[in-house]
């Protein structure tokens, strides 16, 4: 009965207002429209594979923000620091290091002009590119852009122009990984946009050591910037790793990577504390935290705490859960 009374009362109260004219009715309608405006629906938080697998809960003595880390002496293979180094995760654009090795070992002419086509457009993540369809650049320029500024269309075009096309290129990538003993590594395409491109920190350390043997890859990956003439325009590309322009770092080779499933990734060869070191950081959550982790490792190496190697007990390897991107 109470509910009925409330409804009747509301109807009675509304009657006098309805007689006050169209202007007031319009005002009421506007207020009503504002009142029922739908609340924007936010997208659910997307997790990296490492986050979904619980790796971010792993603690380490250096308080790194990367859930996977490995520091190895390049000359002696001594492991100085290890954190979840056997976990298998997506590696994003770190893939491009293997892409570059396969391109260089193919001995294809670096001055040969290649064209970017619609086949090179990213349909995996919908990422943007400054290399519009129809762009013609030399193989060397495309390789430079792929390593320095992580240009996806450049990397894809390099694979597509390989003898036998993209399938043969991907097969060559996996064959090279097998030759290097990268037993936890798998490639399905040359850019790293696919989360099915996966590896471990231990495997990636092998990859960095191999890539360092190519002077061209050292030069291109650590180049601060590159100007490219595209018709009547000149575009300037920059290195995705700000540490290459930091005078306190002596970096011999590097590559960054990012997709949601992989988190922020970084591999480097650098000279620190008189040693040639290989550093691998995977699945870092913050935009700049992978660079911060590199700085944390450097401070540790330069301190007295680094007299003896620190090896963190690794967790079981993490295999791909269902895609969260």
TrEMBL record:
<keyword id="KW-0732">Signal</keyword>
<dbReference type="GO" id="GO:0008360">
    <property type="term" value="P:regulation of cell shape"/>
</dbReference>
<dbReference type="Pfam" id="PF00768">
    <property type="entry name" value="Peptidase_S11"/>
</dbReference>
<dbReference type="InterPro" id="IPR012338">
    <property type="entry name" value="Beta-lactam/transpept-like"/>
</dbReference>
<dbReference type="GO" id="GO:0006508">
    <property type="term" value="P:proteolysis"/>
</dbReference>
<keyword id="KW-0133">Cell shape</keyword>
<keyword id="KW-0573">Peptidoglycan synthesis</keyword>
<keyword id="KW-0378">Hydrolase</keyword>
<keyword id="KW-0961">Cell wall biogenesis/degradation</keyword>
<feature type="active site" description="Acyl-ester intermediate">
    <location>
        <position position="93"/>
    </location>
</feature>
<dbReference type="GO" id="GO:0009002">
    <property type="term" value="F:serine-type D-Ala-D-Ala carboxypeptidase activity"/>
</dbReference>
<feature type="binding site">
    <location>
        <position position="255"/>
    </location>
    <ligand>
        <name>substrate</name>
    </ligand>
</feature>
<dbReference type="InterPro" id="IPR018044">
    <property type="entry name" value="Peptidase_S11"/>
</dbReference>
<feature type="active site">
    <location>
        <position position="150"/>
    </location>
</feature>
<dbReference type="InterPro" id="IPR001967">
    <property type="entry name" value="Peptidase_S11_N"/>
</dbReference>
<comment type="similarity">
    <text>Belongs to the peptidase S11 family.</text>
</comment>
<dbReference type="GO" id="GO:0009252">
    <property type="term" value="P:peptidoglycan biosynthetic process"/>
</dbReference>
<feature type="domain" description="Peptidase S11 D-alanyl-D-alanine carboxypeptidase A N-terminal">
    <location>
        <begin position="60"/>
        <end position="284"/>
    </location>
</feature>
<feature type="active site" description="Proton acceptor">
    <location>
        <position position="96"/>
    </location>
</feature>
<dbReference type="GO" id="GO:0071555">
    <property type="term" value="P:cell wall organization"/>
</dbReference>
<protein>
    <submittedName>
        <fullName>D-alanyl-D-alanine endopeptidase (Penicillin-binding protein 7)</fullName>
        <ecNumber>3.4.21.-</ecNumber>
    </submittedName>
</protein>
């Amino acid at each position: 009965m109470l509910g009925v009374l409330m409804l009747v009362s509301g109807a009675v109260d509304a009657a006098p207002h309805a007689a006050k004219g169209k202007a007031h009715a319009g005002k009421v309608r506007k207020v009503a429209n504002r009142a029922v405006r739908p609340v924007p629906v936010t997208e659910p938080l997307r997790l990296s594979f490492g986050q979904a697998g619980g790796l971010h809960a792993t603690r380490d003595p250096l308080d790194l923000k990367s859930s996977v880390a490995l520091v190895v002496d390049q000359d002696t293979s001594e492991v100085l620091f290890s954190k979840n180094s056997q976990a298998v995760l997506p590696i994003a654009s770190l893939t491009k290091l293997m892409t570059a090795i396969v391109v260089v070992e193919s001995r294809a002419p670096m001055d040969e002009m290649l064209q970017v086509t619609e086949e090179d457009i990213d349909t995996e993540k919908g990422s943007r590119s400054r290399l519009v369809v129809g762009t013609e650049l030399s193989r060397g320029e495309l390789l430079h852009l792929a390593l320095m500024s992580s240009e996806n269309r450049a990397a894809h075009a390099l694979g597509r122009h390989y003898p036998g096309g993209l399938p043969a290129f991907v097969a060559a990538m996996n064959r090279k990984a097998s030759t290097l003993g990268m037993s936890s590594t798998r490639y399905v395409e040359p850019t790293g946009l696919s989360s099915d491109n996966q590896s471990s920190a231990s495997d990636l350390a092998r990859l960095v050591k191999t890539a360092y043997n190519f002077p061209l890859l050292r030069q291109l990956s650590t180049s601060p910037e590159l100007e490219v003439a595209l018709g009547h325009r000149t575009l300037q590309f920059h290195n995705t790793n700000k540490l290459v322009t930091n005078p306190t770092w002596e970096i011999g080779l590097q590559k960054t990577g990012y997709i949601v499933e992989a988190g922020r990734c970084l591999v480097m060869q650098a000279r620190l504390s008189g040693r040639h070191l290989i550093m691998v950081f995977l699945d870092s959550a913050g935009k700049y935290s992978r660079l911060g982790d590199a700085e944390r490792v450097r401070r540790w190496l330069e301190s007295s705490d680094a007299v003896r190697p620190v090896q963190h007990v690794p967790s079981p390897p993490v295999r791909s859960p269902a895609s969260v991107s």
